[in-house]
């Protein structure tokens, strides 16, 4: 354990560094998430940061640490990144507890401790240690954890931490961040480029299309293998890849498990309803895709049956499954879905009589109905896209978002917006 402690101290480069400033690159500052975290500091709730691999969770932790360093002794900041091979020996919560003990023996920190555990799901029984730290009246501390599995957002996490946590979901870069990173103006041309590349942070450092494609392919393969195949003992990994490709090709389409199974069976796969259902849930838990349920606007209830699926990042469709159809309308709808999720909204597909509303987005004290179309090309398209919103009789905000060159303003209380201006 002494060897692991030495590696930890080396990785926590602000320890024993004059001024504590040599802690490596902090990356692009994710102000949206940092402001959310800041509102929940100074309490005993565990801060849970989740998101797909390579969306910047580790950078976010380092940015939080950098901010805390301005008012916190350096030795009171304990950071462990479980993705690093240096810490492969930390396999269980007991190993981590022992490492923390050795660390405290060496530095004798006084006052409040801040613990940061990156990719904590790789440590067996991690919740026992987190609960022990946060519930111990003798231990004044705050705990921050990250994970790449959406189960950490569900009832499993609530069970582990008994409700004593607050969660933050990190997504790939949104359009405003893309503009800042690339020094691009917020225009239609920039938005089209954003739709055609996606929001994975690393992509902006890679200029060559082939290199970008290899990066996205490697990332997806890693997630499929490490976060799904190994974790769930998947016996048909090739079919899992086929299913991900099918979902990527059919984003924004209404699908049921049966329709997906039947479609893939047509390609000579031995898909069954149960296999499709299980593998879809695995893809969702690895945060490669998002499942969106239908909501009956009039009955105010979730509808069973067909659902829509969206990608966590458009790079998968753009780089891995390109076709002669650029699918910009689907890309736009996927991007708008991600935008509202990034803003903290829950998102549903709306059903009103025989019509469909692309999205119902909700968060406390805020609700909107959103229709997305690539262009309002003529009166027929305008009538079609506005019809479902006009059929809703409540007073919540109603929006139509399209890629037209100019906004057409308000029509019957429905706002027309351009995606690069929202």
The radius of gyration computed from the alpha-carbon positions, rounded to a whole number of angstroms, is 23 Å
Low-pLDDT residue intervals, each spanning 5 or more residues: none
Number of helices: 15
* Widest beta sheet: strand line-up: 7-6-8-9-10-11-13-12
Q: Helicity level, as a percent range? A: 40-55%
What sort of overall outline do the alpha carbons produce when their principal axes are compared?
globular
Largest sheet: 8 strands, mixed
- Integer tally of domains: 2
Mean pLDDT: 91
Output the helix-strand order: HHEHEHEHEHEHHHHHHEEHHEEEHEEE
Number-wise, the strands total 13
User: Structural class, from secondary structure content?
Assistant: alpha/beta
Beta-strand content estimate: 15-25%
